[in-house]
Design a protein that fits this description.
The protein is mainly alpha-helical. Helices cover 76% and strands 0% of the residues. It contains 7 helices and no strands. The mean pLDDT is 88.
Length: 124
């Protein structure tokens, strides 16, 4: 369903006209529903060993939280840490550093643990 709403379901059979009409008509509702469930998707992806999926949905979750102005609570902090954890599992040091800089410059919150995670991902 996510791929259908995102427009990336090109490998699937083209949906019928009623299905296309439903998603076109209810696009904002589907987006809202996916945004609410994205936190759970990230958590499940991490626990299932699907770090790249967790990163994809985690970045989108962070952007959704930024768009909603919800960057001061524990939900945002949890999302940052989950994205960083997924990047650490993928041994991606530079994206973790970029996440630290984004949080510092755009959000105005410093997460010192991200520096340590970046070092660990780099093998230091």
């Amino acid at each position: 369903m996510y791929n259908a709403s995102d427009g990336t379901a090109s490998a699937l059979i083209a949906p019928s006209k009623p299905v296309r009409s439903f998603f076109h008509t209810n696009k904002s509702t589907c987006h809202e529903w996916l945004s609410r469930n994205r936190s759970a998707v990230v958590a499940v992806a991490l626990r299932a060993g699907m770090a790249s999926c967790a990163v994809r949905h985690g970045y989108t979750l962070l952007q959704d939280l930024l768009d909603l102005g919800n960057t001061k609570g524990s939900e945002f902090e949890n999302a940052v840490l989950q994205v960083a954890w997924a990047l650490l599992k993928l041994k991606q040091s530079e994206p973790i550093q970029g996440l630290y800089v984004w949080c510092r410059d755009i959000i105005g919150i410093k997460f010192p643990c991200l520096k340590a995670m970046a070092d660990q991902a780099a093998g230091k």
